[in-house]
Write a structure and sequence with these properties.
154 residues, alpha/beta, 38% helix
Length: 154
C-alpha cells in the first residue's frame, strides 16, 4: 500500500495491486478515513468475483479493471467502478473549487490530454465542463470490442 498526495491538503489515494493483496490484512478503511483518502483496487487482470467486487464497493473502494487479458479483449480497454458515496464527493466539487485548486481554472493538462468530456459520466457535469472536448474514438471502440469478448465469459 502506498499513499500519494492528490494535490489538495491531506487527500490521499491508496492503491492495492493484485487481488490476493486485497484480502485486507488489517482495516485499511480506518487509515483511509483518517487521512481523508480514497482506496483504489487495481483489478486489471479482470478476474472479478461478484462477492469480492460487492464487498469492495460496499467499503467505498474504487475498482479499476480491464476488458483485456483474462477476457481476451483489446489492450487498454479499461473501466472504473465508482461507489455511490465517492460519486457524491466528486459531484459536490464545484467549478469554483476547480478554479481555486488549479491556477488556469481547468483540470490539469495531463488529465486533459488523457481524458475528454466523453470519458466522464454525465453525472459529473462540473468535471465535464472543465475538460477539453477531446475525441477518443479508439477508446470507445476498444471497450465495445472488450464487451463482446467479456459477454461469453460472464
Amino acid at each position: 500500500m502506498y499513499g500519494t498526495a492528490t494535490g489538495v491538503d491531506k487527500d490521499y489515494v491508496f492503491e492495492r495491486n493484485e487481488k490476493e493483496e486485497l484480502k485486507f490484512r488489517y482495516d485499511y478503511q480506518q487509515t483511509v478515513k483518517e487521512l481523508n483518502g480514497i482506496m483504489v483496487a487495481n483489478a486489471n487482470q479482470g478476474r472479478l468475483e461478484k462477492e469480492w467486487f460487492t464487498n469492495l464497493i460496499d467499503k467505498d473502494v474504487i475498482i479499476i479493471s480491464s476488458g483485456s487479458r483474462f477476457y481476451r479483449g483489446p489492450p487498454h480497454s479499461g473501466v472504473v467502478f465508482i461507489p455511490p458515496p465517492i460519486m457524491d464527493r466528486l459531484k459536490a466539487i464545484s467549478s469554483e473549487t476547480i478554479k481555486e485548486t488549479w491556477p488556469n481554472g481547468l483540470i490539469p493538462s495531463g488529465l486533459n490530454s488523457f481524458f475528454g468530456k466523453n470519458e466522464f459520466p454525465r453525472q459529473l457535469g462540473t468535471w465535464r465542463e472543465n475538460l477539453e472536448d477531446n475525441q477518443n474514438p479508439g477508446l470507445a471502440l476498444r471497450w465495445v470490442a472488450a464487451l463482446a469478448e467479456m459477454d461469453p465469459t460472464l
